[in-house]
Amino acid sequence: MPLREDKGPMGNCRACQKNICGGRPNMKTPGPCACAAPCHAWAAATTDPHILTSAAWAAAWRQAAAVAYHPGGAEVTVVDLDNADAIAWARQSLPATRTVASTRGEHWIYRGSMTSRNGVRPGVDIKSVMSYARWLGPGTGTMALLPDAVRALAAKEPTAARPVPGATAVSAPAGGGQCPHRSPAYLERGIAMAEQRIEEASDCIHTTVFRMFLAVLSAHGRCGCLTDGHIGRLFAAAQEKGESLRHCEDAWTNARTTLGM
Q: What is the arrangement of strands in the sheet containing 106-111, beginning at the earlier edge strand?
């Protein structure tokens, strides 16, 4: 499957925007997307040469900056190690297997599929069923069977290393954090407008998400009126367009940094 320049999947087609078609990735069992064009993130992944070379996919390939695959569909599991500390932990705790260098760390690939889960440890994500991973080359080493130690990670509660940002992450002013706008409707309109802008974006999704996060934070980030529910709505809108949770978190953090929060 093709990836955009920001490493995210191609956005859903018009018939599937806002998941009005039911949304394959939201279903409980994995399966291919039925759309003619690459749609629904991991569910678009295919090995069918007729689909990969079809006219419907041609535009996506022209825009693609990288290629990804569905590990679970290939009956493998990727342990995505984001930094040197995560790699050091894996070398001490997991059996050796095929290793592929990534931008920030390494992918350790095991034979066997399992439930995907992000943030199982600081800097460690598990990508397998109903997830996608970038193709970074064949790697080195012999692929080992998926160990129980990796399966156990997904059974644990995720760490707080990369939590979904909430109201507690935004500094509220003195005076109980009361919104100076004095109107809940003003905040609601702002959230709804940001959701709409994200949903209607046809390209540059990552940039649009960042700009909408920035706009919401600049208006309400310091008054304490944002709640987990508001922020969850923004994240949900972005993820419906194909953004990963990590991209949402990074965009939120970058917006806060830009505003000096």
A: 98-101, 106-111, 76-81, 124-127, 117-121
- Predicted TM-score (pTM) of the model is 0.61
Amino acid identity, position 224: G
Q: How far apart are CA 51 and CA 9, in angstroms?
A: 17
Strand, helix or coil for residue 6: coil
* Neighbouring C-beta atoms of residue 19, cutoff 10 Å: 13
What digits encode the pLDDT tens for the residues 149-165? 999 888 755 444 344 44
The number of helices, as runs of H, and strands, as runs of E, in the chain is 8, 8
Beta-carbon-side half-sphere exposure of residue 140 (alpha carbons within 13 Å): 3
Q: Where are the alpha helices (DSSP H) in 144-183?
A: 148-155
Q: Is 147 left (phi over 0), alpha (psi -120 to 50) or beta?
A: beta
